[in-house]
Design a protein that fits this description.
The protein is mainly α. It contains seven helices and no strands. Keywords: Signal.
Length: 145
């Protein structure tokens, strides 16, 4: 009898371990909307035109205010540490909740961009370098709204 219970216990462990929960695309969009609204206010963005062109790949002449918006977004996405640089461990935890088709790309992008902004001291400028790197790595999966 104890043997049967043990087998069921092992089976339960495997079923829990193989169960993945991840965000749906609708949840990602809702999260992006919340982050944009929050960070737009926090960074005191008055002209959204500049923000709208970033996910389209236009990274020229980005104002300091918009760079601070990027810092806020990366903070809310929990991929940067208090110094403004990528927190690799936290970034990987966040990648784990993305849909499978986004997960691997996100993990590689975070690892690829982890050293961006080195030598800079302004958190907003560091965020700009990280965000641009993340965009350049995989534009179709760019998460910053």
């Amino acid at each position: 009898m104890a043997c049967i219970s043990w087998r069921y216990f092992i089976l339960l462990l495997f079923s829990v371990e193989l169960t993945y929960c991840y965000l749906t695309e609708a949840q990602i969009k809702a999260t992006q909307k919340l982050i944009r609204r929050t960070c737009k206010t926090k960074a005191k963005i008055t002209n959204e035109e500049e923000l709208d062109r970033l996910p389209k790949g236009n990274w020229d002449d980005v104002s300091h205010t918009s760079r601070c918006y990027l810092h806020c977004c990366l903070s809310m996405l929990k991929v940067i540490n208090s110094d403004g640089f990528i927190d690799l461990e936290a970034g990987m935890r966040q990648s784990a909740i993305l849909p499978p088709e986004r997960r691997a790309s996100s993990e590689i992008a975070i690892d690829t961009c982890k050293d961006k902004g080195e030598g800079l001291t302004d958190k907003c400028d560091i965020a700009y370098e990280i965000a641009k790197c993340l965009y350049d790595f995989e534009p179709k999966f760019y998460l910053i709204p």
